[in-house]
Amino acid sequence: MAQRDEEHKLFEQHRICIVCTDSLPLEHAEQVCRRSPSYGQRWISALLRSPSSCRLTPCFGFEPTIEEYGGEPSIHQSTPTKEDTAAATHIISNTINFETFDLACEALIPVVRPSWLHESLKRRKLSNPRHFSPDPRLFMNDVVVCCGDIPEGDKEAIVAGVLARGGLYSQRVSGTVTHLVDLTDTSDKARLAQAKKLKLKIVLPHWFDDCLKLGQRIDEAPYLLPDPEILSAGPDDPLRRRENKGLNAASTPDPSHMPDMNKKPTPHSSKGEEQRSVFNGKTIMLSPDLRIGERLLESIQSVLESGGATVTGNVYNADWVICRFRDGFVYRTASRLEKEVGNLAWLYSLMIFNEYTRPLSKLLHYPVSRTPIPGFEGLKISLSNYVGEARIYLENLISAAGAECTKTLKQENTHLITAHGTSEKCTAAREWGLQVVNHLWLEDSYIKWRHQPESDPCYSHFPPRTNLGEIAGHKMLDMQVLERVFFASEDTESQSPEPAMQEKDQNATSMPPPELKQMDDENAPAPPQDTPQATKKARRVSENKKIETPIRSRLLPDGKENDTPSSTSSRKSKEAATARLHEYAPDFALYEKERKRRGGVIFGGRRKSDEDRVTINPKKRRSLDPQEESENEEVKEAKRPKKSRLEISMHLLITGYQKWVGKGNEKKEDADKRHLRDLGIMVVQDARRCTHMAAPSILRTTKFVNALAYAPAIISTDFITECLKQDKLLDPKKFGLVDKSAESKFNFSLAKALKNAKKNNNQLLKNFRIYCVEDIRGGFEAFKSIVETNGGQCLLYRGRLGLTNSSRREESDDEDSEMEDDEPGRHEWDRIQTCPSLDQVPPGGGEIKKTPRILRVDWLLDMAMSQELKPAEGYELTEEMVDKE
């Protein structure tokens, strides 16, 4: 009886908080918490019949509860309050996605999965909570490993790695073991497991080795005995691809549209239990840096209020703050006050799944930075072997990190991120001397906000028969890094300003509800670069103060002459030497890249038979900087000299150049672009960067129309042909574009349009809101870029789809495709719906008093080409005109 009393005090003085989720429903939580009124009678009856059966195990199908062992349980259908969290000794949850998880970690309160409770009851003592943590960073937390006939050194390494990552080790094969590590399925332990029909997996040691090298758990399938795929598959066999469910609604930081609430999935709910909204009781603020329109703002507010939330404009009253960027008063204040800060993608994810997730658990559910990661400026990164949501996620993550993501791999690229190391891109990248890494390098750089060394073995490891796209997006942000870099308290105002200043600041920085007007431009958030720069400065000052502190004055008497000098000068010398090495790093990398090209690049580069290949005299020493190469380098007569690369004198945007158009001309295009760069001409794709634009004639391509808004010098593509032919930079003024027939056709003057563009300064369509139908010819994105380039706002219009013409030609994704059609009557089927000036829109989201006009695409194109506002008359499309068609 004494032993039974001790066992029934297993949870005495323990306050156990249970957080209900889809996988831990309310009924199960109540079952393990509450004392059954008939339990005493059942236990006594069972004791009289069979005393040995009435231990801590369930009797007659009844499972013992926390209360019956002296514990104080509490059940929470949503996030427990801070008071409940602080009072708990253990928190039971299948996930870390509840708001007070960080508070529990700071207070050293264990967060465990329900299996901790069952294991403690089974063993009749409290189990180690670390091995039952739901934290995904402990990726071995649900692994119980047993080792078979493997070398002792491998056994020690595997056991140590599993224990360090949250797993458990068992010496014997039992029902709790999940993985048996062995070299064959015929060993003693493997046969025992098969004889007992235990539900465990027999894997090769290679699986643990690959998991520990990556710091992520990968699928065991290729390592399972008796026929492991890593040993039987050939090098050219295709890899299987598994769906990455961890990236649902988490692949972009800036969603283009609000989710359809009528089609959202509903989480599992108990019978008779009304589904609780994730927004119930929350006060939510939408930051002004979201820059969303009134209509979308009204829709979001409607969904939040229908879920029981309150939308506020005061950051101090908000529980959750929705921001776009990691800067400004609202973001820094909310972060310092430890409020939940996420972006629109996170908010939409909560709307879709109606289940709370922490914004830090997904890299793109947290606001992004306007400034790039230090060291990522100028990086050009290409992707290989990633598909679906994983590819979209990595493309957006590259942009959020401040680098450029290219669809194709070229020699000008700096990095190739690949899911496995067996592809043509990987072979070419290695021969070109590019950095070939997996996506973990990008994620770690983004998390630590620092360029991680590509030489780390973790980033160049590619497990055989595994596509790493399956584990993309499984990493979490580090709050300590975010605090140090983006909202450290040293760089801005104090955390608790005076009440008068609070009122002033909240009026200047809060997002107003739909019934209020948008804020003025002068009240916009502070420039983004202030926070990171100020933070670095504060860190440097802090570090210098620590170095200069006379520590020895507290330990040595004053006036002592033989005290040892401080190590400050030594550390400064090391820091200076390290800084110089960082300055020389690009030269070293360029030298290694050029050195590997000796004899020509075998795959994907210039071959000996290429016409444009330049051969260097091997007896001459080559400079590390291509711009410092001598133009008068002596070579043999049979070889052409290597010309130095001139400084960039123009940024050229090219459209409609026929010599590059067509399949099979990609190599010629690359060679011509390299040749032009050697002459000082940088070919760009962004109209904002161009100083000159080359075209064979006046065109209505996206590049041409967008470039007009920036008023570059427009020249003929003959300039490119002659420069390549004469192998020198010619005067672009002699190749000005003249196309009188096109000017007459489109009824505008090119010279006057450029003059107007300089005057407009990209504000031709300021305060215009233009709606384009989804299937507009040329593509919605093309017209959106034209409108936004000219200072307007372009939105997608999905209404009245019944008017579409079934014979309309398909959209074109080519930027050089013409957005016009000379067939009569075709224009009437492409519609643009325009709204009046935003200043005319009444406050409060009321109905627009003026009827929006439905116009043909020519209205927008004619204005963008001439850089003049055109009256709507003559372009309007009426119902009568549509009916006649």
Give a quick set of tags describing it.
28 helices; Rossmann fold; 885 residues; 6 domains; 4-stranded parallel sheet; alpha/beta
Q: Segments where pLDDT lies below 50 for 5+ residues?
A: 36-62, 267-274, 491-569, 600-606, 609-642, 800-814, 820-831, 834-849
* Helical coverage, percent range: 25-40%
Using the alpha-carbon principal axes, give the shape.
Answer: globular
Q: What is the structural class?
A: alpha/beta
Averaged pLDDT: 75
CATH superfamily descriptor of the largest domain: BRCT domain
Biggest beta sheet summary: 4 strands, parallel
**Main CATH class of the largest domain:** Alpha Beta
Looking at CATH, which topology of the largest domain would you report? Rossmann fold
Protein name: BRCT domain-containing protein
Organism: Penicillium chermesinum
InterPro entries: BRCT_dom, BRCT_dom_sf, CellCycle_DNARepair_Reg
GO biological process, one term: double-strand break repair
